[in-house]
């Protein structure tokens, strides 16, 4: 399964994710609306060409037009600042 869309990032450390674990902003994790918790997704930045594999541990994003919310650590690995097409 592949899709092209806009990704955003979030990183509010300490709060609980939908899966019940604590949010770790520096971890390689992400939020997705439908993917199963614990599944791994490879995200590639279309502008930088960098890729990162993240583990789904939360639900979201809840903004129309976005498909995935990346942790701060994953966003940094992609070279993201703000929104990015992935």
Write down the overall mean pLDDT. Answer: 92
Compute the separation of the termini in Å.
14 Å
- The backbone outline, from C-alpha atoms, is globular
Our estimate of the beta-strand percent is: 25-35%
SSE blueprint and pairings:
Layout: E1 6-10, E2 29-32, E3 40-44, E4 51-58, E5 66-71, H1 72-78, E6 84-85
Parallel strand pairs: 1-5, 2-4
Antiparallel strand pairs: 1-6, 2-5, 3-4
Kindly list the characteristics that best describe this protein.
six-stranded mixed sheet; 86 residues; 8% helix; 6 strands; mainly beta; 1 helix; 35% strand
Structure write-up:
This protein is mainly β. The chain contains one helix and six strands; from the N terminus they run E-E-E-E-E-H-E. It has one helix at 72-78, and strands at 6-10, 29-32, 40-44, 51-58, 66-71, 84-85. Strands 3-4-2-5-1-6 form a six-stranded mixed beta sheet, with helices on one face. The protein is globular. The model has no long low-confidence stretch (mean pLDDT 92).
């Amino acid at each position: 399964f592949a899709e092209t869309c806009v990704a955003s990032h979030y990183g509010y450390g300490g709060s609980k994710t939908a899966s019940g674990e604590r949010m770790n902003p520096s971890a390689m994790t992400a939020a997705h609306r439908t993917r199963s918790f614990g599944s791994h997704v490879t995200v590639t930045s279309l502008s930088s060409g960098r890729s990162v594999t993240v583990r789904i541990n939360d639900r979201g994003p809840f903004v129309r037009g976005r498909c995935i919310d990346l942790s701060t650590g994953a966003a940094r690995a992609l070279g993201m600042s703000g929104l990015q097409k992935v």
